[in-house]
Amino acid sequence: MAALTRSRRARAWSALVLLLAAVYFVAPLAASFVFTVDIPGKGLDWSAYTQLLGAPGFGAALLRSLGLGAATILITLLLVVPAMVAIRLRPGRLAAVVEVVCTLPLVVPPIAFVAGISTVLQLGPNQLATTPLYSTFLAVQDTDFPVALVLAYVILALPFVHRSLDAGLRTLDVPTLTEAARSCGANSWQVLFRVLLPNLRSALSSAAFLTLALVLGEYTVARILNFETFPVWIVKVSGDYARLSVAVSLLSLLITWLLLLVVAGAGTRPKESP
């Protein structure tokens, strides 16, 4: 009887904590939504949402951020996955080196990081104006799709991707799986794509989840480098169109949640049986 009472009390406390957490997160969103549709003296007005899709720069900024996110995820995984697998196959001092390199962005201040990137982008063309690399410096700063911003995001995402993959690889016996696959005639690429990666689906989805959230929410680097991503566009329009900017912020949260749910669902989807 005492155990049943304690169990009920624990469930009651858990429900209370979840309710308080829900109020903490939902109340600001609800207040923001009311601000966008309730105009004092006029009542409900949905113009902030009807004008949203036609707002100048909205579609371009959103598509640019989504493209940057996809490119960042692809490049980061291509860099980190082979390195992490190699470390598991041949453990040694290389593991510590990779861990230090991947966690280094956490200790470098973002302002100092972006200041270094800006200095390189500004001085490079001046020093290399007479060389073929001049066109390369211009290409990576293309405002339609800034490759320089992708490279910066790759560095910022390294700690999150490294931790996610490290947690996933710790659950696998990589040497045994690799040896078994090679004994069946598989080459290195087949071992990676047909044996290891399917078992790392959850870790890969977590890495993609965190990277996409980073790109869709990052403002400082893009603003200082003078590239108009979706967060930069939201801040840009907030001065003249307050309700529109709040509506865009709510829409961006919804889009981010939906994309993250898709990524998370792809990683937890059960494998179909033959």
Mean pLDDT figure: 81
Low-confidence stretches: none
CATH superfamily: MetI-like
SSE sequence, one letter per element = HEEHHHHHHHHHHHH
Order of the strands making up the biggest sheet: 1-2
What is the CATH domain class? Mainly Alpha
Radius of gyration: 24 Å
Question: What is the strand tally?
Answer: 2
- Reported CATH architecture: Orthogonal Bundle
The percent range for strand residues is under 5%
DSSP helix fraction: over 70%
**Largest sheet data:** 2 strands, antiparallel
Global geometry: flat
Q: Which fold name fills CATH's third level, the topology?
A: MetI-like fold
* Distance linking N and C termini: 48 Å
Q: Structural class, from helix and strand content?
A: mainly alpha
Number of domains: 1
